[in-house]
Amino acid sequence: MLSLLNGGMVLLTSFLLIPRIGIMGGAISQVIVSTISSSFVLVYALKEGTFVLGKRESTLLFMIPLIAFYEVFIDPPYLDLLLFLSAILLFKTFRIITAEDCNIFT
Questions:
Q1: Burial of 29 (C-beta count, 10 Å sphere; 0-12/13-18/19+)
Q2: Cα–Cα distance between 30 and 24 in angstroms, integer?
Q3: ∠ at Cα 45 (43, 68), nearest 5°?
Q4: Mind listing the pLDDT tens digit for each residue in 58-78?
Q5: Please, are residues 65 and 59 in contact by the beta-carbon 8 Å criterion?
Q6: Which residue blocks in 22-98 are alpha helix, DSSP H?
Q7: Contact indicator for 61, 45 with CB cutoff of 8 Å
Q8: Which residue ranges make up each domain of the chain?
Q9: pTM for the full model?
Q10: Which of 8, 33, 40, 88 would you call most buried, defined as having the most Cβ atoms within 10 angstroms of its Cβ?
Q11: Euclidean distance between CA atoms 51 and 73, whole angstroms
């Protein structure tokens, strides 16, 4: 059902945006559809209890729009390193990523 909804939304938003904006309209269409689809999946997973919203998950979900805002409106190229380092510092401070999470061979 979600696939049919996604397909319909892609067709509608592409039909509306591509003639007006061109290839950027197609990209914007995909972003809109992906955001709506991901929101549906997240709400369903929370409702069914397959995804438990803990401190780690809440922090990461809160950071996504902030990073998007930064990338669109603020981002000079040399500040990408600053964003990366501040994200690592935030992860270490709130213990979002631990040493066990980094060990991929166990």
A1: buried
A2: 10
A3: 55
A4: 888 888 888 878 777 777 767
A5: no
A6: 23-48, 55-69, 79-93
A7: no
A8: 1-51, 53-106
A9: 0.56
A10: 33
A11: 32
